[in-house]
Amino acid sequence: MIGAIAIGLAAGVLGGLLGVGGGVLFVPGLVIFLGLSQHQAEATSLLAIVPVALVGALNQDRYGNVRRADALQMGGVSIVGAAAGVALANVLSGAVLRTAFALLIILIAAQLVRRTLGQQGQISAGATERAVDR
Amino acid sequence: MAIGTVAGLFSGLFGVGGGTVIVPLLVLWLGYGEREATGTSLAAIVFIAAFATAVQAAYGNLHFLDGLLIGVPAVGGVMIGTWLQQRLATRSITLLFAAVLVAAAVELLLE
Description:
A: 134 residues, mainly alpha, 6 helices, 0% strand, B: 111 residues, 2 domains
């Protein structure tokens, strides 16, 4: 239970910092620490994301960082895609879904590293490795 | 339109908000700045995750209490995170986050 709360807090901080809802940490957290199946973890993660994204969006709006019309349009349009995605997830086996998810978060990690190093320009490989190893 | 559809599919399939898809697409396709993309993405995710949660609940996969146990403390976290984002260089945090993701992936693959 304390683990779950800690996952929630940590994922929230990262979500606010990096602009994601925290699901990439919620899902593995629910599987690893609470013993949920991949399907249950994904469903539960989605619920946990709602308040997180809501508060994050309201905060960002105060800083003038939300283009409301675009956000509403994307949200509205997403209904069909979300229903299709959930249906697809429920057709797949837990093992297949878990493996796909693991590959997904590795890709996200790679993307984050590339983006960060791209912003940084020149950087020594040693410093990068130390940062990643921590 | 395309971004919303893709993000919804992605979110529903993987149980994530879809920010990892939305933010880069807003930056690359629509020329958003990083912080605008972040803020707008979070707002869209509120709707996307709510729809996907409802559909997952219909499949009987939702653990409502666990969702709250994680989601409610995360609200406090996200307030800290958005506050920090305006003030910090996020480079080392991003790299640390990437390392955590890789560790989580390895753990999932070993499950």
